[in-house]
Design brief:
The complex is a heterodimer. Chain A is α/β, with parallel strands linked by helices. Chain A contains 17 helices and 24 strands. In chain A, helix 13 runs parallel beside helix 16. The longest helix of chain A is centred in the first third of the chain and has 15 residues, at 105-119. Chain A starts with 8 loop residues before the first strand and ends with a helix. By secondary structure, chain B is mainly α. Chain B has one domain (4-134). In chain B, helix 2 (26-64) packs across helix 3 (84-92). The radius of gyration of chain B is 14 Å and the shape is globular. Classes of the chains: A alpha/beta, B mainly alpha.
């Protein structure tokens, strides 16, 4: 049927918000923005308003008790989206505290009605309705109840062809306010504090007629306003998202930049694979990852590195510093401790697209786990899985490093159980031979490919990693206590013994 | 507070408060002050609320009374929302030239105060209709 109503969706002007809303804000919808104080409700409302308000679609912003309007104007100006040009041209602020203080909702509604009729706005904001609810206690008998008020307001406003936002504090999870039923859209904002980190999250609890992104979505407030980082979508069917992987996973192999390692991998790292390099501190994981990027640069394949540990100025990673400065490698270097994986993935994907990168290094997963806000650590494995899936969907080849605690009694590749997530694994170990620490490495796994099973000694020189010959004379290398294999017993004279 | 220094509205305030037909009298000054204040209130009260306006005005009055000590008394009135009657009373008791200067300083202080809170651009925008109307009625 072609005569179905076509709901226009307005771009909210908040990066990432339209994606989680399922395509934008439905025009003429009645929305609630709820959350505790300081969760960013007013900022979100202002950002949407300044993005959407035009001379043709003017906005009315009603301020009720709560934040004094002077303060609101003062602080909201700090955001770059605040455009003083638009104030009084396409945006009008109206203070309702006088009407609200009487506790008479008829008056409040009458005033809102009057103002809306006078200027026929396309956008209406009421900040905040929690204050309205508190005032309800002093309400005279026989007048509108709060619920009636909100309902009336909703009806009036949709009748006037306005996209409406009521901003308020969330009352309780167990007893949702009836207004939640009336609303077309419900956005819940939250900030959780865990130890020393603070994480902001929002959730679309309801948006009529649109496929919203489920779950909590992290967002950040900076001087530019709110930016939402939608959770990376991992599709479980074998269409769309997974398709490029198959097609891009050509039989091509990537040179790792470490002589002889390519041979051990069976001819290089298959394109589109993710490889885990696990080993104890100082065993040369970063150097191996750097060589991988440098080799890419040499072959005209740009790369991206997400560094959580060393700063680029540290001597070992100078090569990375040089490549970053030359614009051949994109760098995400972070030491903040309140990240969400989705935020990192968001930046990573953006940088990969920008650099047209085909090689990606994450150094290291251990640093990554530290950088992620404690709130997300519980789900770290799950998020890691999502991240690997997203990267693999992009068709890039990934090298991740992982700190491996030196334990000589068991053979482990990763503390996260993340080994199964990756297509290839290289493990590095320290061993003791003749009272000296030596480094060895082995290719443990290359999915769907033949590879060397040898444990090889290697050295780190100024020229990089130099892989030696297999240590044929020793056994028990990965346990750290290498022992010389006893020479075979000579069988000469066997016949004589008989 | 550096009253009036760099205040972009200096000229506008001067024009709005200028007595009609060039007559410098106490009555004319009070009338111009009251008219201008009503215009300012009409612009700002819907935006920042009557209470917000009152707080700003009280502060401006307080700051101005450090120069014009006799203005302080107007604050000790009934505490009603409309500060005009007691302000007018104070102004009428002074000679016209001093009263005019005090009114001017008061508005200058008030707009300065608003500027420090919400910035020059927003203050100018919000108050723009005041000066337009004041100029029309002054002509």
């Amino acid at each position: 049927m072609s005569d179905k109503v076509n709901i226009r969706r307005l771009a909210s002007g908040v990066p990432g918000l339209d994606a989680i809303l399922g395509g934008g804000l439905p025009e003429f919808s009645f929305n609630l923005i709820v959350g505790p104080p300081g969760s960013g409700k007013t900022t979100l409302a202002h950002q949407i308003m300044f993005a959407l308000a035009t001379k043709e679609r003017p906005a009315l912003f009603f301020t009720v008790l709560g934040e004094p309007p002077l303060k609101m104007l003062r602080y909201q100006q700090q955001f770059s989206f605040f455009d003083a040009q638009k104030v009084s041209e396409s945006i009008r602020f109206v203070n309702l505290s006088d009407e609200v203080s009487t506790g008479n909702f008829d008056e409040v509604l009458a005033r809102i009605t009057k103002e809306v009729e006078a200027s026929s706005p396309g956008l209406v904001f009421v900040d905040s309705f929690r204050s309205v609810m508190l005032e309800a206690r002093h309400q005279p008998q026989g007048t509108l109840s709060l619920q009636q008020f909100i309902q009336q307001l909703g009806i009036h406003l949709s009748g006037w062809q306005a996209t409406t936002f009521l901003i308020g504090e969330y009352l309780s999870n167990t007893d949702p306010h009836p207004v939640f039923t009336v609303a077309d859209g419900l956005l819940s904002l939250d900030q959780s504090i865990h130890r020393n980190s603070m994480v902001r999250q929002m959730q679309v609890l309801k948006m009529r007629g649109q496929p919203t992104r489920p779950g909590m979505q992290t967002f950040r407030i900076s001087s530019a306003g709110i930016e939402v980082f939608p959770t990376a979508l991992v599709r479980d069917d074998n269409s769309a998202a997974l398709e490029p992987v198959g097609s891009r996973r050509t039989k091509a192999r990537l040179a790792t930049g470490v002589p002889r390692l390519d041979d051990m991998l069976g001819g290089g790292l298959p394109s589109g694979y993710s490889m885990l390099v696990a080993g104890p501190s100082g065993s040369g994981k970063t150097i191996l990852a750097t060589a991988f990027l440098a080799e890419g640069v040499r072959r005209g394949e740009p790369g991206v590195i997400v560094a959580f540990e060393q700063t680029p100025s540290q001597s070992r990673t100078r090569t990375i510093d040089d490549m970053v400065r030359a614009g051949q490698v994109g760098l995400i270097n972070t030491r903040s401790l309140d990240l969400s994986i989705d935020e990192i993935v968001h930046h990573m994907v953006a940088l990969i697209h920008k650099m047209k990168a085909t090689r990606v290094v994450i150094d290291s997963l251990s640093g990554f786990e530290l950088a992620v806000a404690p709130t997300f650590r519980e789900d770290f494995r799950e998020s890691l899985f999502r991240m690997v899936a997203v990267l693999s969907g992009l068709g890039v080849t990934v090298v991740m490093t992982s700190e491996l605690e030196d334990r000589y009694t068991d053979l482990r590749f990763s503390p996260y159980g993340s080994a199964f997530l990756t297509d290839a694994i290289i493990v590095e170990r320290y061993i003791e031979i003749d009272s000296h620490f030596k480094r060895v490495l082995a290719v443990v796994k290359v999915r769907g490919s033949a590879h060397s099973k040898e444990v090889r000694q290697f050295e780190i020189t100024d020229a990089g990693i130099i892989i030696g010959d297999p240590l044929g004379d020793y056994e028990g290398l990965l346990s750290g206590r290498a022992t010389l294999v006893p020479p075979p017993i000579k069988v000469v004279g066997r016949a004589k013994l008989r | 507070m550096t009253t009036g220094k760099g205040n972009l509205l200096r000229e506008e305030i001067r024009t709005a408060l200028a007595p009609r037909a060039g007559l410098l009298s106490a009555d004319a000054n009070v009338e111009a002050t009251a008219a201008t204040w009503r215009l300012v209130a009409a612009q700002l009260a819907p935006v920042i609320g009557a209470r917000g306006l009152e707080v700003l005005f009280d502060r401006a009055l307080h700051l101005t009374s450090t120069t014009y000590r006799w203005l302080a008394v107007s604050k000790d009135g009934s505490g009603s929302a409309d500060p005009l009657p007691s302000l007018a009373e104070c102004l009428l008791r002074q000679d016209p030239a001093t009263a005019a200067e005090a009114s001017y300083t008061l508005f200058l202080t008030f707009t300065d105060l608003l500027t420090t809170l919400i910035g020059e651009s927003l203050t100018t925008r919000l108050l723009a209709p005041v000066w337009g109307t004041a100029q029309e009625s002054a002509l």
